[in-house]
């Protein structure tokens, strides 16, 4: 299944964001960010569909997402 | 030992707290917020759950702004030094602990004036008026304790918070003696920064504290590894990591979470009523002993927490506590790191003996204590 990542600022925001997305029906999980470490070490939330919708929900709840250079795994 | 030094740290700790610490030492001896392996993620989840538990307990909408500190003093310093205060004035109370007074004293070098609002023991409205008189357009911060660690007097935090809100002045509260026994709402009380220990009324382990950080702090006490934005050499802006450099006290935080859950289950209201019942018994008993001096009016539950200062007239406070220690009682004598409060009470030259109860004390312990104080006073 295709999974897309959403980079967030910290493990705290990753957990908060994952729990929020799960409460809204998304299949979401956290992993250490892979690929190019454009922000240094960090965590990402992975979702299986509607990444843009998930990002909008996170932003609405003040969970800042970060630009990602190549987010698919 | 019969322990009446709960204002310093509560003892014993609940069994659930001891078990949570032991569990964390066994299962979470890893670095949270850094690794991708399952134990690191589980530890991170536990930390976040503690933040959520604390945020909910103190009516604060932002668990990600609940910062783990080593103790209440650490939280207070994080706020005072984090604000980069220069010039202007800071308003505080006449009962403060050195956790507030010493960092404020240092700020005088930055040109800050420290203004002391008088506290009236049985008149919270008069205390609020003291604050109102001192706050002006040059006030950069109002910081005060919620209750005195020397005499238990509760300050009218909600009224002071409203004053600060109306005048747009940041408001920080030292809840060392009230967190867990007096309900605190960050929202309703207009508190911007709530500083508290984990190891007193929340029954967590020593080495734990919290800062509920409602407004940004431009400066940091420490910088270092946070597990995020590591490519940058500057400290990240995001809370809580901005204020949590280095590995946090995972076993302690696990115990703190269990401690808050213990208090939530009992409820602060019931804990306060129980503790005050014991303290009021002690107060009445001490009042009936000749040659014992008390320093406050009768401690009504709505005006005091379970802290009581006294002296046996013919003895120095240290001598009294030592004599009581010999017969198995743990109380603290001296100035309790709060010389300002002792100046206010007129006990600066010899201090007081302080009795403070917890949920684990009993009426029979109080009666035995009164019996021994009576013997000492003869």
Describe the structure in your own words.
The complex is a heterodimer of chains A (73) and B (378). With 73 residues, chain A is of the alpha+beta class. Chain A contains two helices and four strands; from the N terminus they run E-H-E-E-H-E. Chain A has a four-stranded antiparallel sheet. Chain A is globular, with a radius of gyration of 11 Å. The N and C termini of chain A lie close together (10 Å). Chain B is of the alpha/beta class. Helices cover 38% and strands 15% of the residues of chain B. Chain B has a seven-stranded mixed sheet, sandwiched between helices. Chain B has a four-stranded antiparallel sheet with strand order 9-10-13-12, covered by helices on one side. Chain B is globular. The model of chain B has no long low-confidence stretch (mean pLDDT 96). The chains are: A alpha+beta (73), B alpha/beta (378). The interface between A and B is medium-sized, with 18 and 24 residues.
Provide the spatial order of strands within the biggest beta sheet of chain A: 2-3-1-4
The SS-based structural class of chain A is alpha+beta
Radius of gyration of chain B: 21 Å
Shape of chain A: globular
Q: Could you name the ranges of chain A where pLDDT drops below 50 across 5 or more consecutive residues?
A: none
Quaternary form? heterodimer
Summed over residues and divided by their number, the pLDDT of chain B gives a mean of 96
According to DSSP, the number of beta strands of chain A is: 4
User: Helix and strand string of chain A, N-terminal first?
Assistant: EHEEHE
Order of helices and strands of chain B: EHHEHEHEHEHEEEHHEEHEEHEH
What level of helicity do the residues of chain B show? Answer: 25-40%
Q: Give me the Rg of chain A, rounded.
A: 11 Å
Quickly count the helices of chain B: 11
What distance separates the N and C termini of chain A?
10 Å
What's the total number of strands of chain B? 13
């Amino acid at each position: 299944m295709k999974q897309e990542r959403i980079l967030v600022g910290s493990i705290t925001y990753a957990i908060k964001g994952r729990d929020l997305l799960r409460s809204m029906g998304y299949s979401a999980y956290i992993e250490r960010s892979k690929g190019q470490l454009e922000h240094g070490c960090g965590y990402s939330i992975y979702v299986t569909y509607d990444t843009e919708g998930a990002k909008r929900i996170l932003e609405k709840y003040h969970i800042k997402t970060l630009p990602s250079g190549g987010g698919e795994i | 030992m019969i322990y009446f030094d709960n204002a310093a740290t509560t003892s014993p700790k609940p069994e659930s707290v001891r078990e949570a610490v032991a569990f964390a030492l066994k299962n979470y001896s890893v670095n949270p917020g850094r690794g991708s392996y399952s134990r690191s993620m589980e530890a991170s989840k536990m930390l976040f759950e503690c933040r959520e538990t604390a945020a909910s307990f103190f009516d604060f909408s932002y668990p990600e702004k609940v910062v783990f500190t080593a103790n209440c003093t650490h939280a207070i310093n994080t706020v005072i030094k984090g604000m980069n205060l220069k010039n202007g004035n800071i308003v505080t109370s006449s009962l403060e602990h050195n956790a507030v007074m010493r960092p404020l004293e240092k700020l005088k070098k930055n040109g800050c004036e420290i203004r002391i609002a008088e506290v009236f023991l049985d008149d919270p409205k008069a205390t609020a008026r003291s604050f109102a008189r001192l706050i002006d357009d040059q006030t950069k911060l109002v910081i005060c304790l919620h209750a005195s660690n020397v005499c238990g007097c509760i300050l009218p935090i909600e009224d002071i918070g409203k004053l600060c809100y109306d005048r747009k002045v940041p408001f920080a509260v030292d809840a060392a003696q009230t967190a867990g026994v007096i309900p605190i709402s960050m929202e309703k009380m207009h508190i911007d920064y709530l500083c508290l220990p984990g190891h007193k009324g929340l029954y967590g382990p020593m080495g734990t504290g919290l800062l509920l950080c409602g407004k940004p702090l431009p400066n940091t006490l420490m910088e270092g590894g946070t597990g995020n934005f590591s490519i940058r050499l500057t400290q990240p802006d995001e809370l809580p990591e901005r204020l949590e450099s280095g590995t946090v006290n995972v076993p302690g935080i696990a115990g703190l979470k269990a401690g808050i859950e213990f208090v939530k289950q009992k409820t602060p209201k019931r804990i306060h009523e129980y503790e005050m019942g014991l303290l009021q018994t002690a107060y009445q008993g001490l009042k009936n002993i000749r040659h014992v001096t008390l320093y406050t009016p009768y401690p009504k539950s709505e005006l005091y927490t379970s802290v009581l200062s006294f002296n046996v007239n013919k003895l120095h406070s240290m001598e009294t506590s030592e004599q009581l220690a010999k017969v198995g009682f743990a109380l603290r004598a001296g100035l309790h790191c709060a010389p300002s409060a002792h100046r206010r009470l007129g006990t600066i030259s010899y201090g007081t003996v302080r009795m403070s109860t917890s949920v684990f004390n009993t009426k029979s312990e109080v009666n035995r204590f009164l019996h021994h104080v009576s013997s000492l006073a003869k």
